[in-house]
Amino acid sequence: MQKFLIHLRNILTIFVGGFIYSLGINSFALANKLAEGGFTGIALILYYFFKWSPGLVVFLLNIPLLIVGYKVFGKRTFWYTVVGISSVSVCLELTKTWQKPTDDLLLAALFTGVLVGIGAGMMFRVGGTSGGVDIIARLMDRYFGWNLGRTFLMFDCTVILVSIYLIGLDKAMYTLVAVFVGSRVIDYVVEGGKTAKAAFIISHSPQPLADQITEKMDRGVTKLKGTGGYTGHEKEVLYVVVSLREMPKLKSIVHKIDPQAFIVVNDAREVHGEGFSFERTSI
Known about the structure:
By secondary structure, the protein is of the alpha+beta class. The protein has helices spanning 2-29, 38-50, 54-94, 105-125, 133-144, 148-191, 206-217, 247-257, and strands spanning 196-202, 222-227, 234-243, 262-268.
């Protein structure tokens, strides 16, 4: 029963993502004669040329890739991809009259990028795709380690270059803004919005620092063994993950105890565990 509910939730997420994606295309891209990348961009080019239905074109273009998706990703992703392609194709038809022409093309580009990014990201996050470049992006991610947004950006730019003939250079440039924003939003949605900070602290007073961080911030501290590259002396390196808003407090504690401490701070995404993805237990 639980497995069924998970699949149902994922399918609903894909449908909602397809709707949001289609809204971005029809309401802002098509309404303002902007282009788009991937198979959707090809569908828009054919619409501007022949007035062919973008929803139908997207569906037909994706049929060959469905076979690839089945062979590469297995049954689960295949069916999720079928749901994604179907939802985008149907929603492109349902929302084709939901257009929002505007004289501010930058605003249109931004809304296109945000909505397309949210929609595509939602589908990716639960293991689905909207077909087309989505499948290619997943292949690149699996075999070459490229993040999804990067692959989208490359393919989208290629299609946009072709569309310059139809929409002109100015609108193509605005489309690039939409594509860039969309690629960043996709990464944000897929990787998770709960960005945290991971800090490495090298200090002459590691234990007092660890005690203060644990006591005043209620954060766990991990001690790592390190060796100075020049001196050869062994030392302890503290590793701690905190939320973004806790960084000033962490720096204040470190500076108060050891002003000479060396701190390296990195972004940490998809942080799971006590204090981040679920509540802390009582002590």
